[in-house]
Amino acid sequence: MDENNNNIELRSICAECNEVSCGEPGDYYPDWCLQNSGSWLEKALVEYQKPENKKLYKTAAYVESTGYKEWPRLQEIAEFALKASYDNIGLAFCIGLKREAEIAAQYFTSRGLKVNSAVCCCGSINKSRLDVPPEDHLNPDSDFEAGCNPVGQAKMLAETGTEFNIVLGLCVGHDSLFFKYSEAPATVLAVKDRVLGHNSLAAIYNFNSYYSHLFENEK
């Protein structure tokens, strides 16, 4: 692939690759593979040398190898924070998972971690104030409907000095805003999936049966 050809469209399609060359030693890659072009790899390797990134990467390797097939995600997060010496952690959660957030906070506290938590609707901001049209309110006839405030969650946790943040059940897009504004490294305990009990992969696992309609072309 000629990286000097400015008219070429660079695409990465690893999910469609059947060769999985990246998992083996050597330097053979399919012609279409971006391993053969661009400067992305060199740029990535430079970033890994930054102290904070090296700390995150090496701690992740420790958690992966030590707790492999033994630690659930909840424990992995605690072990990661402890190994990285993050004493003050943040928990950004959806109000619909208040009970789950309470249990998670209790667990992290029992492991010796200081926990600061921020609920999604912190600030009680009316959705109308954020320019959300009435038709996109869950109750269009209500004069007030508290909107999620992921930027506020990030700012609140930053003011409490959290060193590592955890997302629990934020909406699609709201989680994006939280990650964008989080001043501390962040991870996910669970994603929001109202239909599948927060088990989003169920739709993937049942792609050829119960959820095959998701993979059909829309008429």
Overview of the molecule:
This protein is an alpha/beta fold and 219 residues long. It has 3 domains: 1-38, no CATH class; 44-70; 73-205, Rossmann fold (3-Layer(aba) Sandwich). It is built from 7 helices and 4 strands. The protein has a 4-stranded parallel beta sheet with strand order 2-1-3-4, with helices on both faces. β3, α6 (174-181) and β4 (186-190) form a beta-alpha-beta unit. α2 (51-66) packs across α3 (73-83) and α5 (150-159) runs parallel beside α6. The chain is globular and about 60 Å long. It starts with 39 loop residues before the first helix and ends in a 14-residue tail after the last helix. 19% of the residues are buried. The model is unreliable at 1-7 (pLDDT under 50).
The CATH topology annotation of the largest domain reads as Rossmann fold
Q: In which order are the strands of the major sheet placed?
A: 2-1-3-4
CATH architecture of the largest domain: 3-Layer(aba) Sandwich
User: Strand content of the residues, in percent?
Assistant: 5-15%
